[in-house]
């Protein structure tokens, strides 16, 4: 018994824990319970408690345990259909447990082995599109999965896929002890996950590499070349080289190649960029700029408006080179009226200038006579 759960079977065991099949006594539902047990640094004692193998490893074990609890509580806050659902988290027996929804499916690694050949592009998309969405959901909350691999993706009998637990506990432990030789899955981990001195930052691009590696595995049946090997000489083949008869689209081949770039700066910076390059989502085009429309004088209304119509009518329009008058006599009439105003306005034109100069001369003569007297 584990905190109200009856253990009924063993689902699997790995380097970082054990997964049990169990029944929730209170609700009667079947669940999967994961126990934190990093076998390289801890073991089960005679009383059933998990203890570090040596006192020197006690700090590493305690740190990994905190990472496991943090990961479990974090997953319990998400409700995405392609993310594993965590019902409960607790500590017991010197370690921690998480009760998860039980998924009666097979991993992508198992399915690839059963198929024997390259998966079609349509099948790869059907399996991984929900996983892409789940990882994008994690990124939206500033969470990096760090352990995207064929072993962590389950396919249900109805074809639905589920992404399993995060790799945060692995990463924490990997940076604290050299005893863990299976911290990372070679081929599915980018180069920045092998460095723990802070010189290489992990981010969304880290999971982009993992997703690209999963696609490569489904196409070729083997993982990409380990990132540590590619630093010296990049011998990573393209999808076309490993599966020339599969007929993968140029978009898929190019996108996977970029996702698997050794340097993080050369990869896609987000899941949406990766999906767009694969052709799995359509990128919205920016709206077209509105076209400028030029109106003619005639379109502004009847001629009485241009001549100063009634209040409330539209303002008069002035014909220009870009806006020619539509009725033939509108421009000549406007020009004639402007000329008439200039002739009868003494303040404008040559006649007005002459009168102004003469007035100034007369005024100066009067002032001179007065001063002379």
Walk me through the structure.
The protein has helices spanning 58-76, 108-115, 121-140, 168-174, 204-220, 227-230, 239-242, 250-259, 271-278, 303-306, 330-344, 349-372; strands at 5-13, 17-24, 30-36, 42-44, 50-52, 86-92, 95-101, 106-107, 153-155, 161-163. It is α+β, with helices and mostly antiparallel strands and 373 residues long. The protein folds into two domains: 1-102, Phosphorylase Kinase, domain 1, CATH 3.30.200.20; 104-284, Transferase(Phosphotransferase), domain 1 (Orthogonal Bundle), CATH 1.10.510.10. The strands form three sheets. Strands 1-2-3-7-6 form a five-stranded antiparallel sheet, covered by helices on one side. Strand 6 (86-92) and strand 7 form a beta hairpin. Helix 1 (58-76) runs antiparallel to helix 4.
């Amino acid at each position: 018994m584990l905190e109200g759960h009856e253990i009924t079977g063993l689902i699997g065991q790995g380097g970082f824990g054990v997964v049990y099949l169990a029944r929730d006594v209170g609700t009667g539902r079947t669940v999967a319970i994961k126990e934190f047990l990093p076998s390289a640094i801890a073991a089960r004692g005679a009383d059933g408690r998990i203890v570090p193998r040596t006192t020197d490893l006690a700090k590493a074990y305690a740190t990994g345990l905190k990472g496991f609890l943090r990961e479990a509580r974090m997953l319990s806050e998400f409700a995405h259909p392609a993310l594993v659902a965590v019902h409960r988290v607790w500590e017991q027996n010197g370690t921690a447990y998480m009760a998860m929804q039980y998924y009666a499916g097979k991993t992508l690694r198992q399915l690839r082995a059963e198929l024997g050949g390259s998966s079609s592009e349509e099948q790869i998309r059907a399996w991984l599109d929900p996983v892409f969405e789940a990882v994008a959901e994690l990124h939206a909350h500033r969470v990096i999965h760090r352990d995207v691999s064929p072993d962590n993706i389950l396919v249900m009998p109805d074809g639905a896929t589920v992404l399993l637990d995060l790799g945060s506990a692995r990463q924490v432990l990997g940076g604290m002890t050299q005893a863990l030789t299976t911290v990372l899955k070679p081929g599915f981990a980018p180069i920045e996950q092998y460095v723990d001195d802070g010189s290489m930052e992990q981010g969304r691009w880290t999971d982009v590499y993992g997703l690209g590696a999963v696609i490569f595995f489904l196409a070729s049946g083997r993982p990409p070349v380990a990132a540590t090997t590619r630093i010296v000489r990049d011998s990573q083949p393209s999808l076309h080289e490993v599966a020339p008869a599969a007929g993968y689209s140029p978009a898929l081949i190019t996108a996977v190649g970029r996702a698997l770039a050794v340097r993080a700066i050369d990869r896609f910076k987000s899941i949406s960029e990766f999906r767009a390059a694969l052709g799995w989502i359509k990128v919205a085009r920016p709206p077209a700029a509105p076209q400028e429309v030029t109106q003619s004088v005639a379109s502004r209304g009847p001629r009485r408006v241009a001549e100063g119509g009634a209040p409330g009518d539209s303002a008069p329009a002035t014909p220009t080179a870009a806006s020619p008058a539509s009725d033939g006599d509108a421009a000549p009439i406007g020009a004639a009226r402007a000329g008439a105003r200039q002739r009868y306005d003494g303040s404008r034109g040559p006649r007005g200038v002459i009168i102004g100069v003469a007035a100034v001369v007369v005024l100066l003569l009067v002032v001179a006579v007065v001063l002379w007297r």
